[in-house]
Give the backbone structure.
Amino acid sequence: MAAPTYVGSRIKRREDPRLVTGNASYTDDMSFTGTVFLHMVRSPYAHANITRIDTSAAAKMTGVLAILTGEELQKNLAGPLPAVSIGGHPLTARYAIAVGRVRYVGEIVAAVVADSRYTARDAAEMVEVEYSELPVVIDMDKAAKGEPGLVHDEIPNNIVAELNFGNDVTDAFKEPEVLIEGRIVNQRLIPNPMENRVALAHYRPGEESLTLYMTTQNPHIARTLISGMVGIPEHKLRVIAPEVGGGFGAKIQTYPEEIIACYASKKLGHPVKWTETRSESFMATIHGRDNIDYFRIAAKKDGTITAMDCTIYANMGAYLQLLGTTIPLLRGVISTGPYAIPAAHFKALCVLTNTSPTDAYRGAGRPEATYMLERAMNMLADKLNMDPMEVRRKNFIQPDQFPYFNIVALNYDTGEYEVAMDKALEIFGYAEMRKLQEEGRKQGRYIGIGQSTYVEVCGLGPGSGMTTQRGYDCAVVRAELTGKVTVFTGVSPHGQGQETTFAQVVADEFGIPIEDVIIKHGDTEMTPYGMGTYGSRGTAVGGGALMLAVDTVKEKAKKIAAFQLEANEEDIIFEEGKFSVKGSPGKSLGWAEVCLKAYIDPKMAPVIEPGLEATRYFEPGNFVYPFGTHLCALEVDPTTGEITFLKYVAVDDCGRQLNPMIVEGQLHGGIAQGIAQAIYEEAVYDTQGQLISGTLMDYTVPTASELPSYTLDHTVTPTKVNPLGVKGIGEAGTIASTPVIVNAVLDALKPFGVTDMMMPLRPEKIWKAIQAHSQNGH
Amino acid sequence: MKRTVKLSINGTTYEREVEPRTLLVHFLRDELGLTGTHIGCDTSQCGACTVLVNGQSLKSCTAFAVQLNGSDVQTIEGLAKGGELHPIQQGFWEEHGLQCGYCTPGMIMQTVQLLNRNPNPSETEIRKGIEGNLCRCTGYQNIVKAVQWAAKHQADGAKEIPQGDAVKVDPAEIAPVP
């Protein structure tokens, strides 16, 4: 292998020149001659029967091509939208356009196609719909008792699934030395990638083929599912994910709008474009989190945890989306975190309500698991009057215990949790910060220190075990005739930078300049079947496939070199872009010469097939388990409830770092989104199912002024799960950071006797908590 | 019903007949095909559509094209000159100030105004200066560094902010921008 020159370096991203100049093409930037525009009519009611739809006024408007209703689509589409069922639980029949009944505000009741964006919107307003209201199910505690009604008549008590993991904990909770119990709310969030969803469907009548440009994280999966829905065979449906402006899980789904766009394009013979507005996105794109946890933890007086028991209510919204109950499942399997807990039970009740469906949002189940556990660790520390870090240290899985079965489901391959923790403590200056806190309190300053030591599970994923289907990705590595290399990957990056990191790997492996490598992605006609980019899997799984394909190309290249140099294949050494013969230093061939020979040399005709290219799939044997320690110091102003960040330190372990600059970028953004949950963001429904926080004016996506800078460092614990030795880092920051902030705020408020608060910890809430406790005699 | 609007955009004068309700951002994207200016919201929070109008940053979803008749508009497409990146664009590249890139054109155009007004801003001033622009990927830390990089290199005399070098159009009928 060539000595690495690119891997491990802070190579500037190759994606950026087109992005900083406005030359990138996102889906809404594209158009074809004859493109017409689609706009949705959405339900203003959370739960109602549709009693009448009158489209006549809208249909008469100049420029209106078609108005689509649920009945028409139900007749012409294959059936309800697809969703995953774990262990055969029922699914919630959902059609692209509602038929007879709506179950959340924003559900589509009709769709208008017109010759301009503005006309389509005007016409949508002219569609008259009458409703007869039904009891609205919002509150999860009540919903799970079937009150005040049923979201789907065939699903009793609105509980669509119950998931159980772990072992029997009854004995473990008999007479515990210490018992911690609690109820924790993990509020609903709205992903808000900066680019809303867009679909541009282009049906070609002569070919009976359709090209769909769309904002997706996984074009191949979208193609399979949409093909089945719309009735265009998979080989005639091409899905292209052009530039995609962020996803965070929200663009994994196959949504109604893309299906309607395809149907309309096929029906009308026009390219059809649908562009979501932000306010639509708030209702029509998935939400995340929304769990209520009831938990208890048994421990010894020295802080050793002996058992954990947890039941969660997971709000699925009105319908199961594509992954749906997989999110509480992902939460359950990691619910014991980095701690050696000998007895643990996790139960999830998946509850339907008249709200927008929930699904994977950055972290997907793991932030919820980590939040509860890391809050519980601090509650235990408080109860025992120990430092929270010491409680964690006491319970960490030790290096010699790996591979470690975590009781609930998973086999962690490697981990060195204390090393990361000690590094973070040192960088943070933990002891000094405690002193500062103590001195501060004497002067009426309220400084708090927050902690989180997490392990997560990502790199989806193994083809067996926990997953419902095979989990792999693929790569084509094509050495061109001139020695340039074109790579097609099945993952679909939309900000993660694999056009750069994958090129670094290939350039090093072949000993060629990075300029000679190009990474292509996001087009089902170009790349073999890939699962896409989500669950921190792009580099861990897609990078694995890349390495396998690189190796296969190298093998063939060596065969060609052996033929050309008249040597034995096993004597060929490939180093720094040069093929030489062991023991004969004078004989050598360069990479480009071998590539050229592969395509043109007639002498090889009888012995070696032309070309130099490989397609390989990689299916890992396990997930990967990144981990780390995050610490934060902040100060609360008791007169206003405002938070000032003093220091945030994160030490994370994602294995080998291909490009530290990109790893850090992923962490910055991840931490920011976790902090956003702790302090700012919350999706709020009123009792009638209206989304109160329904625009960016009402939902606080934090700005630059509301976030701190972070000090990052890392440890490198190798993993052998994939050929690159990498672990995903896209979600780790979000998973870790939420409890750090809440723990810090509660630590700051200790002198007031505040022990618990519900997120988001906005100033007014903090101020009120301080006031309430001050009036109680503190 | 339609009205004529004449605008200078990145140094070129364009004249079109549009509905009076056509937003500037739709005019740029749909009429002129200048799709580097993005749309991220419908309540003027996100700043993805930020452009410069007569040298001042404006969220182009907040104004009708006809209101700006006669104005000089600069978009992201006009920033790089002669195939060379503007120092602010270069700064975003150098410091990994973008991931998905969707907010980036608006963020860069806002930075043009920020550095015009304050060539050597502190971190707090930078964060304040871009707080009308949302980014969901970076957590802003590297955007702050990108702006600092640009400030440093502009101060080193790298480049002038390009101004529209077009023939000025008749600024008749300019309505105030809300």
In short: Chain B is about 30% helix and 15% strand. The longest helix of chain B spans residues 141-155. Chain B touches chain A through 58 residues (CB under 8 Å). The helical segments of chain B are 24-31, 87-94, 104-117, 123-129, 141-155.
